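Model: You mentioned two targets. I'll fold them one after the other.
Researcher: Yes, keep them separate.
Model: Target one:
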Amino acid sequence: MANKISDETIEYVGILAKLDLSSEEREQAKRDMEKMLDYIDKLNELDTGGVEPMSHVFSINNVFRSDEVVNGDDRDNMLLNAPKKKEGTYMVPKTFD
């Protein structure tokens, strides 16, 4: 293991995460963090010379369509289902005085 985590770092992470760790839990967390950092170091050994940087694994294309009005203003047909109407609009009961 090349990476060593100090007791101060574990204490600081515990404070940030609002954890009250016992001494055994601190030691286990320390070992786990060291293993994670070792794994990241192993990934850093990979040759990524010909790999283009990307933000997503799959290419993202615009899936939106342009807005097109297809039914237009069909007010008269829409008002056929209205229980009450007045001057070409829906009439609803009062909600306040």
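Model: Target two:
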Amino acid sequence: MRRLILTYLATGVAFAAVDYIWLTQFGPKVYFPTLDPVALPSARLGPAAVFYFAYIVGVMALAIWPNRDKPLIKTTLTGAMLGAMCYATYDLTNQATLRVWSTHITIIDITWGTFITAFGATVGGWVFRRLNA
């Protein structure tokens, strides 16, 4: 159990740290020119925390754990696929239903989700393997 908790924490910290940089340094340049009229001045922390806690559980269950005995690259690729699908679900649904959504946001955000989920899965997979050694 300790190994899973430490893996979860490592995955979450890696994901959140890199996402924080994205959301504070690059995200406003991507999202706000289009979404400013409907965006909140600051994010609601409750829903954001629920997302992070749940998403990391998903990364653990779908990318890290199933590939625990396989090469780390398999964890990375599975994380990338998971990220692409999750972020595509969000972005393409928004593009299909919202007037203020744009294709460039969809492309950038799916690319970001693919990268950050692969990164988080890789860090988590690496920690999981190291804790077994």
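Researcher: Noted. Anything on target two?
Model: The CA atoms of residues 21 and 27 lie 9 Å apart.
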